[in-house]
Amino acid sequence: MPGGRKKPSRGSKKSKPSRRDGASDRKKPVPLEEVLGRAETAMEMSDVDTALQLFAYAAGVLRSRAESGGGSGGDAGAQEKDRGALSTVLGKMGELKASNGDVDGARSDFLEAIELLGPSAAEDDGEMEGNCSVEAAQSSEVRAGLHLYLGQLSTGPEALEAFRTGVSALERTMRILERIQSSGGEIEDAVMEGSEEETGAARTERFLSETRRQLCAAHCSIAELYLTDLCEEPDAEAACEAALKAALAVDEAASASGAVNGGAGPEVWATMANFRLSQSRVSEAMECILKAYDRMRVGCEAMAALVELGNVDGNEKQGGEGGARELVEVDAASSLPEYGFRIQTAKLLLECASLQPKDNPGATEAINRCAQSATQVLGSLLAENDEIIEVWYLLGCAFAAVLPPNTDAANYYWENALEMLERVKKGLEESMGDGNNDEEEDENELEAIECQMVEVKTKLGRYKDDGEEDMDDS
Predict the structure, then answer these.
(1) CA angle 116, 118, 123 (to 5 degrees)
(2) Per-position DSSP letters for 69-89, written without gaps between them
(3) Distance between CA 171 and CA 177 in Å, rounded?
(4) Which of 99, 144, 200, 428 has its CA 20 to 30 A from that of 461?
(5) Is 215 exposed, middle or buried (0-12, 13-18, 19+ CB in 10 A)?
(6) What is the pLDDT of residues 169-224, one digit of tens each?
(7) Which helix (H) or strand (E) holds 237?
(8) What is the pTM of this model?
């Protein structure tokens, strides 16, 4: 019919898009920089699994490019850059795996990252003069970090070798930065992140202070090895002393140079206190642990005040000075050492208090100072997380340690610790036998909880030798 639509023949088919058209519809690969950005974000958000997946993908791309040179067009400089980027990615993967308990996987990543960096640069003065740059300092710091992480995942002589290598790299970093500083050099904003208001000189000082802090911590790790894994070595005591003196020397050198912040944080003094206790030098141990506390006193008192345990000295500043003090306290609280270290510090303070001879002149003052300092440290922990039973128990011990003892306060914290233990015990007993847990592991945990309950009840004076409880304990 004229003007009508032509009916397609039976054999005709709808046209299909060509392969070329289909290819244009495919998604383009996500740029490597974007993948790394997403991985960093996931890492900051503690999304370990996502971060590991993204970093693993990036590592595969970089490894392929570094081995073949395909991504760099055969350019040796670009290929070396890919190797450096791969080393950085593997380091982050090692950190994530270590936090997930995958020690073997973390060690493997750290070892490959170290191998990719190649042999360390020579440290003779001639080369130092020729390579006194921020980039050289940053490269040396990265190398140090990998070895120090490896040391934390190792034991015995292997850990010692890793820590010592890390120390050498950090010492080189510090020397480079000190030369940059003494020559009037400054770190550009593009080289190192910082606030817009921060000057290049301030960035240099910040980098140097952080390096000193890491170096002191590395010396402490060596000392702790000689207090634990290597304690049977013939030179263990001398080596431990030397490591701690090296850490304190970094702090003294920083103070002598006029640095705003030294290098020795509370960790050095706490480790020294532990060492002195092992030598039965109690008075020196007390001096050291109180120095450790003084390094974090402002932050601890500020946090402890949130749970009504703060140290009120009766000299609160008013007006503008009060506002400045609040800013200092906020900064100090945000930079407190990690939770586990503060628990150990509180235990050392209480141990030093318990070891003071009661009949010695000044013993009461020394005991109370240690006990009250422990209360402030534990108060900072309670403000941060009030569900840790050990903190409640130790607070009871701290109030019981003062002279005269604050029995009411001690019993209050012990009662809370006991109630928390009873809840944990009840929950564990209810979950046992359901087939979802390891029966032997549950029994061991239950036994540990019952032992802790006995200890708390003993403190409360409510547990008899024959195991029978007082009538009011029902």
Answers:
(1) 145
(2) -GGGTT-HHHHHHHHHHHHHH
(3) 10
(4) 428
(5) buried
(6) 999 999 999 888 887 766 654 444 545 566 777 888 888 989 999 999 999 999 99
(7) helix 236-256
(8) 0.80
